[in-house]
Design goal:
By secondary structure, the protein is an alpha+beta fold. It has 17 helices and 15 strands. It has a 10-stranded antiparallel sheet. A 3-stranded mixed sheet has the order 4-3-5. Strand 13 and strand 14 form a beta hairpin. Helix 3 packs antiparallel against helix 4, helix 8 runs antiparallel to helix 9 and helix 12 packs across helix 14.
């Protein structure tokens, strides 16, 4: 989109402003002897009235569903450089403005922001659609708000829905959150019903991430099959299965029954057609997922997994299935082209564990526990790290209860940056809690009906694989950072 020169834009906007002033004088209507402007207490109220009534509008926005919105060029131009070019640039039109590529129901949210600074995102799907529109029209503040909304909504089950948006809009902050959960909870991500929402490149990006670690290769295989089943008819190289069935089944009938009318073949034709539907479905599925098959480590599967998961999918030929079985049984046989010996080996997890050693606390049989109806213990205070880490799980033996407790992580501004549920002697955070270097945090635990052992303010300090941890604790007994990730663990292959 070409932009007008600054001088031309100023001139056009001045002309538009003067036109608005003139029209306001002409269009003012009265109630109880007062102009409409006087009846509204704030500029926000007045602008809201302009938006809802279309009063003094000088442009009509037309959408593909033939919906019209009366708007105001000056307000649109003030909020977006792209809209400014469309309103006042050299290619600007003076009549209706067709926005056929923009969904009406999404553009309403953009208008509410441009006019009223309102950001009322109702759900995740709408937040992503608004994000795309805000990015398109370079409304940066709205884009930032949508990004923060997505960060808060990133859960293992929602990663597949959010990942594409993060990749397309190059939102590294959201992408980092998605990768963290892929590393921490890969099986929940890949088993999500929304895995089909991934684009082809996004699925490839996830399956090739060097920190992807699953308990069984069948989880990756099933994710590929589920994705392919939902996407095979939307791929550019795909044609409807029914068309293939009609053509190939017709050819089969001609060859198997030359000169015989198809209607005379009876029920055998119907059963044969069903077999062809399944065969062609499997063939089309194979075509759709073929490029992902080398990413599945088939030789790491057990024979039981192969028989119960892979073979029933129907995407392997008989020869390929036999070759895999022979190799799994230790008998050398030429492997299918998509199986490589280089993909043999267990995937390794990136999550690390370290013990925060107390410099002056007492351990062993001298540790005394006291019963509390309710107790709040600072597991760690002034807790600091030397590198950015994502905390996944923390454990301590100083406080025990059969009841569930609440763990809060506070920053120095007394804001909660993470929350989890304590069970037994540990807490696994549903989402990794991001801790920034040189920032001080407090990790507190609140429990009911608990046995607690606390003492003097003990110093804890340890350096583990290049990352330093330090702080103070009142707990008698060791505190374990069961799992944590550094940025290096999630940034690779981003």
């Amino acid at each position: 989109m070409l932009l007008a020169s600054p001088g031309a834009v100023v001139t056009r906007m001045a002309e538009a402003s003067q036109a608005v002033v003139t029209r306001m004088a002409e269009a003012s209507h009265h109630s109880n002897g007062q102009p409409w402007q006087c009846r509204l207490g704030t500029n926000r109220d007045r602008i809201s009235l302009l938006l809802t009534t279309g009063n003094l509008s000088d442009v009509t926005l037309v959408f593909s569903n033939n919906t019209h919105i009366k708007a105001h060029r000056l307000i649109l131009a003030m909020g977006s450089p792209v809209l400014e070019a469309m309103m006042y640039g050299p290619l600007a039109t003076h009549g209706d403005l067709a926005l056929n590529a923009d969904p009406f129901e999404v553009f309403i949210f953009l208008l509410n922001y441009l006019y009223l600074d309102e950001i009322n995102l109702p759900d995740l799907d709408m937040a992503m659609r608004v994000y795309h529109l805000a990015h398109k029209y370079q409304v940066d503040t709205l884009s930032e708000a949508c990004s923060k909304y997505l960060v808060d909504e990133v859960q293992p089950e929602t990663v597949p829905r959010i990942f594409d948006t993060a990749m397309l809009l190059e939102d590294n902050f959201v992408l980092q959150r998605c990768i963290e959960l892929l590393v921490v909870s890969p099986e929940r991500v890949l088993q999500s019903r929304d895995v089909s929402h991934l684009g082809r490149s996004s699925l490839w990006h996830i399956l090739t991430h060097p920190r992807l670690c699953v308990s069984s290769e069948t989880i990756i295989f099933n994710a590929v099959i589920n994705w392919g089943t939902e996407n095979m008819d939307t791929e550019s190289n795909a044609s409807p299965v029914s068309q293939d069935v009609e053509e190939e089944h017709g050819n089969y009938l001609e060859l198997a029954n030359p000169g015989q009318d198809r209607e005379q073949l009876g029920s055998g034709v119907a059963s044969g057609a069903e077999g062809f539907v399944l065969k062609l479905f499997n063939r089309r599925l194979r075509q759709t997922v073929e490029e992902f098959l080398p990413l599945v480590r088939f030789l790491n599967m057990t024979l039981h997994e192969m028989v119960t998961c892979v073979f029933p999918s129907g995407i392997l030929t008989g020869d390929e299935s036999v070759a895999l079985v022979l190799n799994l049984k230790g008998k050398h046989s030429a492997l299918p082209y998509f199986v490589s010996q280089t993909t043999v080996g267990k995937r390794e997890s990136s999550m690390k564990t370290t013990v925060l050693s107390s410099l002056n606390s007492a351990y062993g049989s001298s540790t005394q526990f006291t019963f509390h109806n309710q107790v709040t213990v600072n597991l760690l205070r002034n807790f600091m790290t030397t590198r950015t880490v994502s905390l996944v799980k923390i454990s301590a033996i100083c406080t025990v209860s059969l009841q569930e407790g609440v763990v809060n992580i506070w920053n120095s501004a007394n804001e909660i940056v993470g929350r989890g549920t304590w069970q037994g002697t540990s807490c696994s955070f549903r989402r990794p809690v991001r801790l920034l270097p040189t920032k001080a945090y407090t990790i507190s635990l609140t429990l009911r009906d608990a046995m607690s052992s606390t003492g003097a303010n003990n110093v804890v300090s340890v350096t583990h694989q290049g990352t330093g941890f330090s702080g103070q604790t009142l707990c008698n007994g060791k505190i374990v950072i069961d799992y944590y990730l550094t940025d290096d663990d999630t940034r690779r292959s981003m």
